Amino acid sequence: MADDAGGIPELDQKKYDADEQVKIICLGDSAVGKSKLMERFLMDEYRPQQLSTYALTLYKHTATVGNKTVAVDFWDTAGQERFKSMHPSYYHKAHACIMVFDVQRKITYKNLANWYKELRDYRPEIPCCVVANKIDADLKVTQRSFSFGKKQGLPFYFVSAADGTNVVKMFREMIKRAVDYKKNPSDFMDEVMQELENFDLEKKEDNSDADEDGLKAQSPELV
Amino acid sequence: MRFEAKRCGVQFSPPAIVLIYQHKDTNKVRKRIIPVRNFSKCSDYSTAAERLKNHPRHRDYLEGVSQSQLERLHIILRDHMQGFSLQHSLASFQLDPDQDLNKLDDDELARKKGQMDRLFERNQRCKDDPDFVYDLEMDFHTKEKCSWDEESDDGF
What we know:
The structure holds 2 protein chains of 2 kinds. By secondary structure, chain A is an alpha/beta fold. Chain A folds into 2 domains: 2-186, Rossmann fold (3-Layer(aba) Sandwich); 188-223. Chain A has helices at 34-42, 88-91, 106-110, 112-122, 167-183, 188-222, and strands at 21-27, 49-51, 56-65, 68-76, 96-102, 128-133, 144-145, 156-158. The longest helix of chain A is centred in the last third of the chain and has 35 residues, at 188-222. The radius of gyration of chain A is 21 Å and the shape is globular. Chain B is built from 4 helices and 4 strands. Chain B has helices at residues 45-53, 67-81, 86-93, 106-123, and strands at 3-11, 16-23, 29-35, 144-145. The longest helix of chain B has 18 residues, at 106-123. The radius of gyration of chain B is 20 Å and the shape is flat. The model of chain B has no long low-confidence stretch (mean pLDDT 90).
């Protein structure tokens, strides 16, 4: 089945094909504050679902975009970033990506290039943004322009998970972009996957017919 | 909150968490020594901290003490049980901004995160704060190039 690429049996990633479901992934080094950002955005809604076997944390959120209700699943890494790359299922069917670095640690900024490259290997076209976190530690950083992602036209946000600056704005804009992307997917792979899945379904229907025929054909012999 | 935590520390022998707190009704400052039981050099500091934070007899007093601070104190306690000095424990919390934290194991990373959490907690705006704004937006106007972008070749 096409969804076997998902590889996580507990998580049926097929649901992300439904119109009212989007999947947004977070990328970035250890301790840049990815979970803290989620916590700040979700507040009372914050109920992380730990899937420690997969070094993965899921957060569910219900958003309103336009006049539609959208169920958003945020995927966070829970230490998987230590393996230098994420399992392909992490990227599978994602509709947007939030890339985070820590303004106090240059290495986390430099590593964005690696994260971005891996993201684009799997998801060449999904909306993505660059998030500079922990600006509360030193507000002077907000006077500097960080050029990573500029060439690719990625939106850039100065945020602080601690005092809340621009956290909600960033998440809301990314949810909207994920929904827009889903309406109009430009990833060639999405279409291929969709085609494969349709093909798969048709085949299955054929098979089940065949099985029935087979049974019918066999039963007289059995009797 | 009936009790305002003022300071929270650790005592090695017998192992205990020491809390200085102020009773809100009487304004009296008192000391509470909370024994740390069933905790050995092999125990999990995070579980132990959580257990203490939710302990029916102590949780009201510990409301103002963060989980991460309790974790840090348990780490210091466990280091001591393993024969490490207090200096060693404190040094392990220190952050080197150039260090690649992706390369640390869970325990080492928790120590660094503990340090970061201190800054986070200092600057944190909670939803109970009177001037809390959920959707806090701010525009920034950049004036200069960031030095981190120099010597860049890899797609920056």
